[in-house]
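User: Please fill in residues for this 466-position structure.
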């Protein structure tokens, strides 16, 4: 299996640390608001990754965190804690806010047929483990303390920028429009491991005792602690969106590798953004659309899954309603074809070589750095093939769906259609093929009056009770 490793800046052959098992870590959401379709694109890419690894016979040990403290509105350790903003907005406690949005998030994943990571821990559940790492970093001389926070000293790590390829001198996290709050921070790239209840954070609701007094952890340390607790160090694959390369993942690496003197993960994979009008879809950009917005328009969540599969995870994907509606139509066709195949009794010709080569093409596509657009093309090639029987087609499609995750096994057989309707459908099909659309439309109406609908699919007309 070839995977693009951000750390190596190229596709590499995947080799697990332990034979047959893959440790996979995914950065989870900050649960202060609904997740948007952009976030969900990243979770879909990670789901495909897990499914391909399983298709290849690996046992996947998947872990994810839930960020419920310490993620500030700016990556430069400034601004407010997002959970406390959510709590103020809704007149609830931060933990109530976290509980609500985490459960909405898992409901969205389920609607998208994303396999839930087997191991999930919230940041607030692992405070002692986070404190342990900070202590170790302190003992090894990687930290310094101001009166507001304990910072990680990035100047102590010569290869700090190895994931992004950015030099420390080029990193300008602090040079944004925000006011730099802590004059004692030595370098803009240095980041907080632990905040004290001082200044802006003196009334921070979430806080815990620590060897340095009451406070709360910075954002990045939770992932170092949770991945280590659940998967050990090093583990195989770490994933997230591309926005995590420069800061969050870079900082996770700096913390874990400095504390324990070994790599954090072998492969780093990043999903590109979902964009709107070519700009990133984001919570703070205010241009975000949720899965519930799609459902309000009558769009099946799995149509969004189909839409996402249509682009490679390392290419930006622009959201438009037309494109998602197009995907909804394609999904409908796929389901209808599946229903037709489940109903078909055809025992026509069946070229096993063709079937095997389709299976292989699909497998090669997904094993080539998760090339889902190519995999979808193989699905349609299979549907249209004249050389294999319906039974074989169905078997192939069901197999492909283990990765595509369109839930095609749920598609029911078609109820028997009365003879008079079948006759009308066949007559209409002849008109349609001859491009006599007036006649074919008039027959479609007649069929409709009799209580049936016809959809045209690449396999021919699909009839169902309306
Ligand atoms: P957050 O809740 O902001 O930590 O984001 C959760 C996940 O969604 C992270 O892996 C982000 O990288 C990812 N993400 C955020 N915005 C987008 C977007 N527009 N497109 C794709 N992924 C995104
Ligand atoms: Zn993380």
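Assistant: Residues filled in for all 466 positions:
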């Amino acid at each position: 299996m070839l995977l693009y490793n951000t750390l190596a800046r190229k596709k590499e052959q995947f080799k697990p640390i332990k034979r047959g098992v893959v440790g996979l870590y995914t950065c989870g959401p900050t649960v202060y608001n609904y997740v948007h379709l952009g976030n969900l694109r990243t979770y879909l890419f990670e789901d495909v990754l897990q499914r391909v690894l399983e298709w290849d016979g690996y046992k996947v040990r998947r872990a994810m965190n839930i960020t419920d403290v310490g993620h500030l509105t700016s990556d430069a350790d400034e601004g407010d804690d997002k959970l406390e903003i959510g709590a103020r907005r809704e007149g609830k406690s931060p933990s109530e806010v976290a509980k609500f949005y985490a459960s909405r998030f898992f409901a969205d994943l389920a609607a998208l047929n994303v396999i839930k990571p087997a191991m999930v821990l919230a940041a607030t559940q692992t405070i002692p483990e986070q404190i342990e790492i900070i202590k170790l970093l302190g003992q090894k001389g990687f930290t310094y303390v101001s009166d507001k926070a304990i910072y990680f000293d990035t100047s102590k790590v010569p290869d700090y920028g190895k994931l992004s390829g950015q030099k420390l001198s080029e990193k300008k996290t602090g040079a944004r429009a925000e006011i730099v709050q802590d004059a004692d921070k030595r370098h803009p790239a240095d980041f907080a491991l632990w905040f004290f209840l001082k200044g802006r954070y003196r009334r921070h609701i979430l806080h815990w005792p620590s060897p340095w007094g009451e406070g709360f952890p910075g954002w990045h340390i939770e992932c170092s602690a949770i991945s280590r607790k659940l998967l050990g160090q090093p583990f195989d694959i770490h994933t997230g969106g591309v926005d995590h390369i420069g800061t969050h993942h870079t900082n996770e690496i700096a913390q874990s590798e400095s504390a324990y003197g070994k790599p954090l993960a072998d492969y780093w994979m990043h999903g590109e953004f979902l964009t709107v009008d070519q700009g990133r879809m984001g919570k703070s950009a205010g241009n975000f659309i949720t899965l519930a917005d799609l459902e309000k328009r009558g769009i099946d969540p799995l149509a969004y899954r189909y839409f996402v599969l249509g682009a490679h995870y390392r290419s930006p994907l622009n959201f438009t309603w037309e494109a998602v509606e197009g995907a909804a139509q394609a999904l409908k066709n796929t389901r209808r074809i599946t229903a037709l195949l489940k109903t078909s009794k055809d025992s026509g010709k069946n070229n096993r070589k063709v079937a095997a080569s389709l299976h292989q093409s699909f497998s090669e596509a997904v094993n080539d750095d998760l090339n889902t657009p190519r995999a979808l093309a193989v699905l349609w090639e299979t549907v249209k093939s004249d050389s294999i029987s319906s039974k074989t087609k169905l078997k192939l499609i069901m197999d492909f769906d283990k990765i595509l995750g369109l839930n095609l096994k749920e598609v029911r057989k078609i109820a028997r259609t009365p003879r008079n309707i079948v006759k009308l459908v066949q007559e209409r099909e002849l008109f349609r093929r001859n491009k006599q659309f007036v006649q074919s439309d008039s027959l479609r109406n007649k069929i409709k009056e009799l209580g049936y609908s016809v959809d045209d699919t690449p396999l021919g007309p699909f009839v169902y009770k309306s």
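For context: The longest strand covers residues 59-66.
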